[in-house]
Amino acid sequence: MDQQVVYADLDVCRGTGRRVPSHSPLHQDICQGPPWHRFALKLGCSILLFLAFAVIGLSVSVIFLQQTLPVSVNTVHAQENLSETTERPFASKCTEPWYPIREKCLLFTSDVCTWNQSLTNCKGSSLLLIQDQEELRLIQKRIDSVGVQFWIGLKYSPAEKNWKWINGSFLNSEMLQVTGISGKNICVSISNTKLTSEHCEAESRSICQKELKPIRKKVYSDS
Ligand SMILES: *[C@@H]1O[C@H](CO)[C@@H](O)[C@H](O)[C@H]1NC(C)=O
Ligand SMILES: *[C@@H]1O[C@H](CO)[C@@H](O)[C@H](O)[C@H]1NC(C)=O
Ligand SMILES: *[C@@H]1O[C@H](CO)[C@@H](O)[C@H](O)[C@H]1NC(C)=O
């Protein structure tokens, strides 16, 4: 009985009803049953066929994607790297004798000058501005000779009774401390151990800086 049912099914799938005059009652039931029954079976077969093709199609596209995906990921990486380098066109492009520290190029001058002269000598650049403790540490590590001092872009402003960077911002005294006198015509230099203040007429070496990328402006309190 079971086998007959299977054969009958297959017959219907070939679909033409050529074998209609059959003597098997079951066969007749299926193939010559009500039209909706035959239609349903045809539909079922079509769906099965469609599903089979869909599975094959999906498999093929998955294989295809697996082959192409790593390539496109690489392309994304390359594009990211590209955009990163176009954002920072000067990154790590400090040319001798400029020395790279974080996002800056620094020039440690060998000639000794007053603070004013040093300020003008850093042409096309600026006297050093120190952003934070970490930058201070990196620069001091670079100053290997003990006792040598370098003018930086920091000066006392008697009017505002505060240390003022040459970019107009006040020193954040919680972050960096200056030892020494304060007053009129007092400027700051850096050694490998500290920031020291002295008369701006004194002669020292100096550090110029060029920024590789605009540093985000931070707001400090004037305390
Ligand atoms: C992009 O940079 C990342 C790390 O920054 C690196 O792992 C990757 O290999 C680079 N890709 C290309 C294509 O240079
Ligand atoms: C430094 O320059 C400023 C203005 O540029 C001037 O007022 C000051 O007197 C100068 N200081 C010295 C010591 O030359
Ligand atoms: C000026 O320089 C100091 C020290 O690097 C920095 O903290 C401050 O944000 C700068 N101010 C401006 C307005 O760029």
From TrEMBL:
It is found in: Membrane. SUPFAM superfamilies: C-type lectin-like (SSF56436). The keyword Coiled coil does not apply. Residues 101-209 form the C-type lectin domain. Pfam families: Lectin_C (PF00059). Its main location: membrane. Keywords: Disulfide bond, Lectin, Membrane, Signal-anchor, Transmembrane, Transmembrane helix. It is a single-pass type II membrane protein. The chain crosses the membrane at residues 43-65. One of its GO terms (molecular function) is carbohydrate binding. This is Killer cell lectin-like receptor subfamily B member 1. It comes from Erinaceus europaeus (Western European hedgehog).
